[in-house]
Backbone:
């Protein structure tokens, strides 16, 4: 086997090509993944979610539980897991689900049993951020686990107003992402494939049903 | 990329040199004749480039720099006649070869300076003609046809000449210019490619010909004899009613 | 694939059993480009599908960047990649240190054989009997699947298209869309055979069938193998994009995650993704962003609810370091978006298989001779018209046209050009470099064509011109009437 020193020596031994230096990062790039000048981040978030088939529910704090129960009803979801990043809301939502006759558990308790995790009907998570320009939900392994956002056919994500960042530049460049642990995950709508004759199918391996509950006011 | 097309400091110079290129000497003689005819009508004194052969592109693009240089050198020395007269090339890809790639071909050779001199003088024909649009219009050219234009790859993507040939066509009364959806897609000629991979090459032509049929054009125009050889050759084999003509010939017919 | 116990929540579809598969062998150097191209071109569906899908992808890409400053974005993308490659040794070491800090075990594969041995070794050492795989071109490069099966590991490709490719014993036809060249009917026939019954011939039902079986595979596999789109030096992370979610599941659900990644994939910082990610996805599928972007940094940490116990990253050289600092270094800037394939008029006719190895289209015509050598892979660099469309679309501005020309030159220098061609150009050079000989030969040429021509058209199969005149006439321009 090639050892590290030999391997790296091969990489080092060659002359270096021209180095143009790091690009100037004073300004956010003008990219499809950024807001346009003067654009409202919430308008854009809603627009992008509509495009990527994420269902957005913009509700005040006191309607969060009822909104989620209605989504679970509609999806006919019985077994539900809730992740750590729901923070203070987690207990209340767990109780609300249980009161509505759902089989609700902490994701941390379900996850060690792969079969059980694989049988979940829905997961409810918080997030580390949401990105307006791409309609993305950002989760971390520390908060939602590595598979928390995509193991079940339905994913419901609770996003606070102040968690919405403009675009990828702000997401990656700023201090938005503190310690995310072993996974920083972006998801933008339901799982999809168009492999078979370019016909778009939602819900291939991940959820086909993604809801973003935007807590606003 | 410095295409240098902006350095048009020859405008108004009455004498021009016409470099037929090898295609012009073998299969596209009429194009050369017509180019000369048009230039004369526009008031230029036209000199044929005596002793010029081929620009060396077939060998250069196949990776054979030695033969490419040998052939290009003969052409360079014939063209380097001590004058400043513009050298007009009725072939987009040959013009591109001389303007952009000769630097590389003659890099660190005795002819490096000569190559630069020639590169500055060489003009793709249609870009030169487009500058004469006003004069052309004043001669009232007339040709009734539904015309599609095919972009030569090297002319479009290396020399960045897109509008010039279209401007010339628009200056002709009676021409209805149709934008073909695949105008910018390669016709499959590619010089030696057309002989190396005939099946692929022909299929590439067919995909464009289908577009022309769909657009119901009756005349296909290009500014590159290579593309015309390919597309015209395939259409002729298939018995297509669409005519193919070089821009210079279209203009010659319209001025006749 | 042996099917183990059924488990709750993931019932196997009736009759589910993947057929035994032999990955299609690489065809280099036993066949020519022309022969391989002919096979695809002889299938009208494949041709139509490839042309349709690639045209569509190009129009999506153009639309995606229509109202942003695309050129500046490409400049930035190029600069990031050029800077990373120019400083590859440093960034690679930084990445390794940070990855190890995260708890990842890092391996060094100088060549393809070593990559296979390392990964097979991990499977043996860690008692891995079954792996799920997420689409990876690097693993195609090293022909990983057959090596794993050789040590008794069951391998299941989980990308829907790759799953079909695997079950058919085929090869992926496109970097981004592996079964571009296959019809729904073919997939229906395959899945029905696997199911032992006639499934509804609808994309949705067929996908659901595959999903159910693959779900079972995810939940039971011991290991997951992925590639990686980028290695992020400042954090020691591996980034992976997928649309189906299989990449995330592969790297998260099984006990062991193994990633095989080329060394050139290193980028300095996470924030470089703000430029590279939209370029990658916008040029790949025309999407603003792929559905799943997973940036993984090592095994499950203590406070985390799930994730692999072990993560292993195998760094693959296999011809890459040899390109550093040389004429072809820019080939290492490639981010494998596939845009050059989509825009290539030759690829549009012949698809990916014609290139004979892993990568197709312009970047395939560049990488194949570079990674397989001129003797074996040199021919595919000839199989382009040098039209330059690839240069114009590449998100990181790789000068593919120049690289192809350079490779043609290199083939000549290394004496790998067929003798006939060599001789022909030598003679041509000697004759046409003398104006009098040129005048003589062109006159003779004109004269003989004139004799062969009828009404100015040479249409018979002329000896020496047969490859031209088989499908085309040689039209000699005539005087106008
Ligand atoms: S060469 Fe450029 S266009 Fe082609 S796959 Fe690589 S990055 Fe994409």
Residues:
């Amino acid at each position: 086997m090639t050892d590290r020193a030999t391997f790296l020596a091969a990489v080092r031994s060659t002359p270096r090509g021209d180095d143009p230096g790091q690009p100037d990062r004073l300004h956010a790039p003008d990219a499809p993944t950024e807001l346009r000048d003067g654009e409202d981040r919430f308008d854009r978030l809603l627009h992008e979610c509509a495009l990527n088939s994420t269902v957005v529910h913009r509700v005040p704090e006191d309607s969060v539980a009822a909104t989620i129960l209605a989504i679970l009803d509609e999806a006919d979801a019985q077994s539900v897991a809730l992740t750590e990043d729901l923070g203070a809301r987690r207990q209340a939502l767990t109780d609300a689900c249980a009161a509505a006759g759902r089989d609700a558990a902490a994701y941390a308790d379900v996850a060690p049993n792969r079969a059980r995790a694989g049988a979940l009907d829905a997961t409810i998570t918080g997030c580390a951020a949401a990105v307006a320009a791409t309609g993305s939900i950002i989760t971390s392994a520390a908060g939602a686990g590595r598979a928390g956002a995509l193991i079940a056919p339905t994913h419901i994500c609770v996003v606070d107003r102040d968690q919405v960042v403009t675009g990828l530049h702000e997401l990656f460049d700023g201090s938005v992402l503190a310690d995310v642990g072993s996974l920083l995950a972006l998801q933008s709508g339901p799982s999809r494939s168009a492999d078979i004759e370019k016909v778009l199918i939602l819900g291939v391996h991940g959820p086909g049903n993604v809801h973003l509950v935007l807590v606003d006011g | 990329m410095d295409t240098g097309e902006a350095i048009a400091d020859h405008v108004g110079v009455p004498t021009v040199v016409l470099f037929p290129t090898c295609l012009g000497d073998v299969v596209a003689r009429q194009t050369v004749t017509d180019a000369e005819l048009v230039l004369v009508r526009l008031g230029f004194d036209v000199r044929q480039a005596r002793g010029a052969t081929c620009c060396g592109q077939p060998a250069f693009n196949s990776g054979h720099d030695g033969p490419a240089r040998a052939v290009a050198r003969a052409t360079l020395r014939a063209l380097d006649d001590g004058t400043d007269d513009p050298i007009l090339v009725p072939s987009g890809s040959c013009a591109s070869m001389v303007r952009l790639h000769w630097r590389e071909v003659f890099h660190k050779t005795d002819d490096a300076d000569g190559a630069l001199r020639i590169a500055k003088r060489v003009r793709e024909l249609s870009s030169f003609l487009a500058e004469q649009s006003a004069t052309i219009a004043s001669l009232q050219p007339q040709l009734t046809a539904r015309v599609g234009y095919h972009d030569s790859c090297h002319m479009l993507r290396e020399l960045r000449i897109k509008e010039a040939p279209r401007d010339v066509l628009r200056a002709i009364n009676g021409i209805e210019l149709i934008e073909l959806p695949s105008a910018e897609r390669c016709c499959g000629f590619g010089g030696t490619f057309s002989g190396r991979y005939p099946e692929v090459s022909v299929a590439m032509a067919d995909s464009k010909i289908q577009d022309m049929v769909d657009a119901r054009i009756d005349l296909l125009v290009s500014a590159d004899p290579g593309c015309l050889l390919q597309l015209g050759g395939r259409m002729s084999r298939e018995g297509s009613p669409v005519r193919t003509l070089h821009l210079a010939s279209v203009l010659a017919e319209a001025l006749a | 694939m042996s099917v183990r116990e059924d488990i709750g929540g993931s019932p196997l579809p009736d009759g589910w059993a993947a057929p035994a598969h032999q990955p299609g062998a690489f065809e280099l150097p036993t066949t020519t480009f022309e022969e391989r191209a002919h096979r695809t071109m002889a299938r009208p569906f494949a041709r139509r599908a490839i042309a349709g899908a690639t045209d569509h992808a190009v129009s999506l890409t153009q639309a995606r960047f229509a109202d942003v400053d695309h050129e500046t974005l490409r400049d930035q993308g190029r600069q990031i990649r050029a800077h990373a490659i120019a400083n590859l040794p440093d960034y690679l070491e930084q990445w390794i240190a940070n990855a190890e800090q995260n708890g990842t075990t890092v391996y060094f594969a100088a060549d393809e054989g070593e990559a296979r041995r390392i990964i097979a070794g991990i499977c043996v050492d860690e008692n891995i009997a079954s792996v799920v795989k997420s689409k990876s071109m690097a693993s195609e490069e090293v022909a990983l699947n057959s090596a794993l099966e050789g040590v008794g590991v069951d391998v299941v490709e989980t990308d829907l298209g790759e799953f079909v490719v695997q079950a058919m014993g085929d090869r992926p036809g496109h970097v981004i869309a592996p079964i571009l060249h296959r019809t729904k009917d073919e997939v229906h026939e395959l899945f029905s055979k696997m199911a032992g019954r006639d499934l509804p011939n609808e994309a949705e039902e067929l996908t659901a069938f595959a999903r159910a079986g693959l779900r079972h595979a995810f939940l039971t596999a011991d290991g997951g193998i992925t590639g990686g789109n980028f290695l992020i030096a400042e954090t020691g992370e591996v980034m992976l994009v997928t649309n189906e979610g299989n990449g995330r599941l592969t790297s998260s659900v099984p006990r062991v995650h193994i990633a095989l990644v080329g060394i050139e994939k290193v980028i300095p910082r996470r924030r470089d993704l703000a430029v590279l990610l939209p370029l990658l996805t916008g040029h790949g599928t025309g999407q603003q962003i792929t559905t799943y972007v997973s940036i993984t940094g090592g095994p499950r940490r203590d406070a985390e609810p799930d994730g692999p116990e072990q993560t292993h990253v195998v760094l693959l050289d296999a011809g890459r370091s040899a390109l550093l600092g040389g004429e072809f270094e820019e080939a290492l800037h490639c981010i494998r978006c596939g845009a050059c394939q989509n825009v290539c008029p030759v690829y549009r006719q012949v698809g990916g298989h014609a290139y004979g190895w892993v990568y197709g289209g312009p970047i395939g015509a560049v990488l194949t001779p570079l990674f397989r050598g001129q003797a074996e892979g040199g021919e595919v660099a000839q199989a382009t018209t040098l039209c330059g469309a690839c240069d114009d679309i590449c998100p990181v501005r790789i000068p593919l046209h120049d690289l192809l020309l350079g490779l043609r030159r290199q083939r000549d220098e290394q004496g790998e050009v067929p003798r006939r061609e060599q001789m022909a150009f030598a003679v041509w050079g000697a004759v046409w470099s003398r104006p009098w000989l040129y005048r003589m030969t062109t006159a003779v040429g004109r004269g003989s064509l004139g004799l062969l021509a009828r009404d100015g058209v040479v249409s018979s199969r002329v000896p020496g011109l047969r490859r031209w005149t088989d499908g085309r006439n040689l039209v000699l321009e005539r005087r106008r009437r």
